[in-house]
What we know:
The chain is of the alpha+beta class and about 200 residues long. The chain has a domain at about 30-165: NADH Oxidase, CATH 3.40.109. It is about 35% helix and about 15% strand. The protein has a 4-stranded antiparallel beta sheet, with helices on both faces. Helix 2 runs antiparallel to helix 5. The longest helix is centred in the middle third of the chain and has 18 residues, at about 110-125. It is globular, with a radius of gyration of 18 Å. The chain binds flavin mononucleotide. Flavin mononucleotide binds next to strand 3.
Amino acid sequence: MTYPNKPADVKYPINELAKNRWSPRVFADRPIEEEKIMLLFEAARWAPSSFNEQPWRYIYATKDDQEKFKQLFSLMGEFNQGWAGKAWLLAVSFVKKNQTKNGQPNYYAMHDTGAASFSLVLEAVNQGLMGHQMAGFDKERAVAELGFDPAEYQAGSMIAVGYPPTLADLEKLTPEQQTSELSDRKRKVLTEILFKGKFKAS
Ligand SMILES: Cc1cc2nc3c(=O)[nH]c(=O)nc-3n(C[C@H](O)[C@H](O)[C@H](O)COP(=O)(O)O)c2cc1C
């Protein structure tokens, strides 16, 4: 038995990267090559943004730098610490809150940073890697400890990235984690989220 692949059960045949992306909670114990790491952030860099503001910033650490890796690891809540330490790379996205051109709040800052992070995660799939985004971490500490001025920046999400695991890696998970790792991926049906012309509450 190989490690589960959990492609989306699509109704229409979407592109392979989007179809094959999912959020694993275990990774192979294997380093990610430096070039691939740069490709991840290059993909984020080329995301679209309102007024081309590019409000995203990223801090990352890899397992071979224990001090920096542990600092990012320490930001996560207990649940995420239970699995994300198995990733080779941890990253935190930050969001520049105001527009550079006029200092006014950038309504689209978090939206655009999410787009950049999703681009990163899709590039991970393209590089044979897997990424898993996280909301469960201490955002105030992340801003304070990683060099950002809280008046200008807020934390977005954390992202764990690594090579897909083998079946032996799956056995490192607790029984509950294994169950969620092996369970089906679920989505609302298209008619619950898509409306022609006008929204109709169900
Ligand atoms: C912004 C964001 C925050 C998330 N936070 C967490 C988290 O803190 N812990 C976790 O295990 N998964 C987290 N996830 C992963 C979601 O649970 C996952 O994407 C969702 O269940 C759909 O599964 P899939 O990505 O495998 O399709 C997060 C995803 C996103 C996009």
